[in-house]
Prior knowledge:
Layout (H helix, E strand, L loop, with lengths): L15 E4 L9 H28 L6 H30 L3 E3 H34 L4 H4 L2 H19 L1 H7 L8 E2 L6 H5 L7 H34 L6 H31 L7 H25 L1 H20 L1
Parallel strand pairs: 1-3
Antiparallel strand pairs: 1-2
Membrane topology: Multi-pass membrane protein
Main location: membrane
Pfam family, one: 7tm_4
Amino acid sequence: MFFSNTSSSGSTEVSEFILVGFPGIQSWQHWLSIPLALLFFIALMANITLLITFYTDPNLHEPMYYFLAMLALVDLGLCNSVTPKLLGILWFGAKTISSSACFTQIYFIHCLLGVESGVFLVMAYDRYVAICNPLRYLYIITNSFVVKAMAFILIRNTVLVLPLPFLAARLHYCSRNTIKYSFCANLAVVSLACEDFTISSAYQLTVAWSFLSGDLALIIISYCFIFRAVLKLQAEGAAMKALSTCSSHLTLILFFYTVLVVLVITHKNAHKIPSDIPNMANVLHLIVPPSLNPIVYGVRTKEIKHGIQKVFVKSRRLSSET
C-alpha cells in the first residue's frame, strides 16, 4: 500500500479523496450503471471462460493462445481495478476513497495498461513471424520465447510504473481532494497537490509515451511487413486467409489505440468540452476492451470456439451426472 506524507507546514493533510463520478448526468446515472454493470459481468464471465478453455483444451496449449491467456488475465485485472468502485459511486454514492487505496489504484491501472500494450506488441510479432517466416515459426515462437517475452513485459511495466504512486504519495494534499474522474488517474490526483507536481506529471508522460507510442510504432512496422508479404501471395484466396488470421488482433489494436488518441485530444481540449466526455472515455477504455477482447477472439477463432463448446458440453455432462 502507498501512503501520503504528513505535511511539514502543519496544515491538515488529506487522508481521503472524493471521486465525483459523472456530475453532469447525476439525474440518470443509475441508468448508466446498467450497461456498465453488464459490461463488467461480460468481461468477468468471458475472460474466465477463455482461461478455463485454454487450461482444459490441450489443442490450445500453443504460444498464440498463451498470449491470449495473458491478455485475459490483464483484462480481468483492469476491469476489477476500476469497475467495482465505479458501480459503488453510481449505486450507493460511495464517492470517498482513502489516499492509500487511491495511490494503489493509480499503480495497477497504469501498470496493466502498459502490460496490455506490450501483449499486443508481442502478438503482432507472432503474426509477423507466422506470415512472413512461416517455415521458421516453430523455431522462433517457442514456449521459451513466450516466457521471456511475458517476463520482459511484466518487469518493464511493474518496475517503471512503480515510481508513479510514490511520487504522488510524497506530495502534500492540504486543501483540495475532489478528483474530477470516476477513478484515481495520476494526473488528476497530483494536480490537487498544494505544491509543485512537475516531476510526477513529467515522469508519467515520459513513461506513457515511451511505452505506448513505442509499442504502437513497432506494431505498425510489423503490419507493414505483413501487408507487404500478403500482397506477394499468388495462390487464390491465400491473401484473404493470411489476413483473416490478423483480423481479430487488428480489431482490438485499433480500438485500444484509437481510444487513447481520443483521450489525448479531449485532455488537450478539456476547457472546450464538458468534463463528463473525457471521464466517460476513460471509463470505457478500461471496461470495454476487457469485455470485447475475449468475444472477438472467441467468435473469430475457430479453435477457441470449439474449445469453448467442449467446456460447456463437459460442464453440462457433469451437472447431469450429479
